[in-house]
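[audit] Reproducing an earlier prediction to check determinism. Same input, same settings, fresh worker. If the tokens differ from the archived copy the diff job will pick it up downstream; this log only records the rerun itself.
[audit] input (134 residues):
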Amino acid sequence: MVFIAIITVLSAFLAFLLGLLWYSPMLFGAAWRAALKRKPGAKIPMKMRVTLCALWLLSAIVYSFVAQAIGLSSVSDYLIFSGLMFLCFSLPVKIMDVIYAGQARSLIMIEGLYYLTGYILIGMTHYCAALIFV
């Protein structure tokens, strides 16, 4: 049980670190800021980073719980479940933000791909841990 908790926290932290890289100037930070009509040099507020980390932890806990409950075992199981998490929980919210809040359509791709990649990272962390330690 402790092992699963450690892997869950690690996977959430990796998804969070991916976000720091994803929204940096090295990757999609400039395009993301432009889509949100923010200044090019605007920094991501600390409360946003803390919230992002907490939400990834919540997502990783749900991911881990469901993966254990349904008995995911193969890499394809984890990839399919990652895609389903994205389709059920992240993509609809982003599409609604674009339609109803008037956000730029490019945010569907920028943020959507980030969340999909984050879920895949969580899944692959759990899969690799299961291969190594179980």
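[audit] rerun output stored. Observation attached for the diff report: The chain has a mean pLDDT of 93.
[audit] end
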